[in-house]
Amino acid sequence: MPVTHATQVRADVERNRAAIMTGAIGLLGVEPNASMQQIAEASGVNRATLYRHFASRDQLMSALHAKALDDSAEVARRLPADGPVVAALRAFLDDAITIGERYRFILMYHRTDPGLFDVEARATVPVLKAIRRGQEAGEIDPRLEPVFAAGQITMLVIGVIGLVERGAMTLEQARRQAQISFGNTLAVPVR
């Protein structure tokens, strides 16, 4: 099939957007207050190209936040439909911490796009299903509301990243503490 001018332009647009997202993630991970000019340079595009894709820093940050949620949702969708739930949720927590570390600059940025709350809620659906399944199997405390338990997992990720960001713990120390806290939060109480 011949490549048309429109097809080539679309491919260029997608390639530039991907380069901007990748460049922004890399740069903002080490320099959260980087300017749009610095983001353009890190992305290998000029400022005009950056602004054609994202008219403001807020738009860029919303797109990056959505990407972080997409990455988290992808990990959540891999939660198994059967088998032990707590072990699967522990692995999910570990993967979510890795994603949180990659996008830690999002935690330091004021979220201005209320539409992302719906995206967050949809990304949590597989986790809620796993928690309910764990409650039915007797692995997870049935007194916990699944939405609260899922929120606790999210807060563990945020807590880990915050502790690492301010230098209070290494990533591995905080990751271990999150796993301990996870078990204490969700486990069926000993009678």
Automatic annotation (TrEMBL):
MF-aspect GO terms: DNA-binding transcription factor activity; transcription cis-regulatory region binding
PROSITE patterns per UniProt: HTH_TETR_2
Name this polypeptide is given: TetR/AcrR family transcriptional regulator
Organism: Gordonia aquimaris
Superkingdom: Bacteria
Alphabetical keyword list: DNA-binding, Transcription, Transcription regulation
DNA-binding region: 35-54
Record-linked InterPro entries: Homeodomain-like_sf, HTH-type_TetR-like_transc_reg, HTH_TetR, Tet_transcr_reg_TetR-rel_C_sf
Stretches assigned to the HTH tetR-type domain: 14-72
